[in-house]
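Structure first, sequence second, as always.
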């Protein structure tokens, strides 16, 4: 196949009045094709960057959800603690009121008060939620998270470590089986009543193991309250930081989208300018070629 001769092609247009129009439409087609390719490349590049950011956004949203879920769990645990503490105060107040009577002094023993509290709290279904506090792997992960976020010397990390160490001292309370005390509390007989020690309106005995456990449980609840407070601060700060990252990514996506539109508009204007320049030179060239051809024909 012979290659088309451009000069011959142009000469064939001399006798056609619409030569300029024909070339104009060819250039329009080229212009639109180039612009379409340019727009596609700009869009592809921008969408790729947006896609990468959206992938990171999914990860950050999942992380934030995990932190929020953990916060909810700690809030529930603190509610359990408040319930235990309120129940304990109400029961103690009730027994103190009953013991203020002559009959109450003879009927209420130290086991009636403190053993029942230990049983109701530590043998309840809710007590199982605190088991994770004695799992070294989980606690070490939380401590590491605090160290990475705040730093090893931060006050939050320091308080968490201190509370964990204090808590280990009272771990035995959650492992002790108080279910064996059910009969003493709810199904006692006359002999057990006689053997109970009564203290009148006094409700403490530092030599009584039940009373000691009860006081240790109180200390444990105070430690847990402070520990959960520090946990909540940690995970709240983590969630807030992630939200800042999410907002930054969203802003970046908006900026990229706006930038894409601007770049496409600028590319269109530049290519349109180039199109007109080329069009001008081509029309001028063709007109010159037509004049030369006409002169040669006249001669």
């Amino acid at each position: 196949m012979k290659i088309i001769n451009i000069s011959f092609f142009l000469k064939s247009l001399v006798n056609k009045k619409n030569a300029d129009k024909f070339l104009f439409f060819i250039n329009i087609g080229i212009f639109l094709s180039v612009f379409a390719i340019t727009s596609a490349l700009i869009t592809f590049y921008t969408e790729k960057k947006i896609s990468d950011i959206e992938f990171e956004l999914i990860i950050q949203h999942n992380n934030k959800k995990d932190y929020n879920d953990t916060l909810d769990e700690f809030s529930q645990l603190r509610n359990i603690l408040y319930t235990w503490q309120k129940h304990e105060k109400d029961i103690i107040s009730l027994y103190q009121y009953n013991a203020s009577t002559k009959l109450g002094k003879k009927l209420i023993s130290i086991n009636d008060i403190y053993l029942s509290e230990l049983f109701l709290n530590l043998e309840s279904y809710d007590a199982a939620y605190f088991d994770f506090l004695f799992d070294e792997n989980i606690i070490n992960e939380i401590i590491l998270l605090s160290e990475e976020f705040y730093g090893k010397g931060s006050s939050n990390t320091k308080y968490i470590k201190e509370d964990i160490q204090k808590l280990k001292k009272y771990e035995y309370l959650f492992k002790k089986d108080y279910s064996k005390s059910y009969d003493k509390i709810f199904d006692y007989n006359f002999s057990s009543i006689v053997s109970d020690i009564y203290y009148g309106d006094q409700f403490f005995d530092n030599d009584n193991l039940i009373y000691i456990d009860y006081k240790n449980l109180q200390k444990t609840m105070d430690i847990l309250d402070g520990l959960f407070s520090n946990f909540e601060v940690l995970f709240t700060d983590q969630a807030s930081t992630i939200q800042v990252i999410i907002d930054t990514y969203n802003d970046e996506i908006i900026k990229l989208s706006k930038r894409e539109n601007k770049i496409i508009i600028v590319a269109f204007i530049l290519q349109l300018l180039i199109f007109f320049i080329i069009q001008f030179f081509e029309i001028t060239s063709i007109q010159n070629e037509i004049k030369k051809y006409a002169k040669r024909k006249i001669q």
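Margin note: The longest helix spans residues 209-298.
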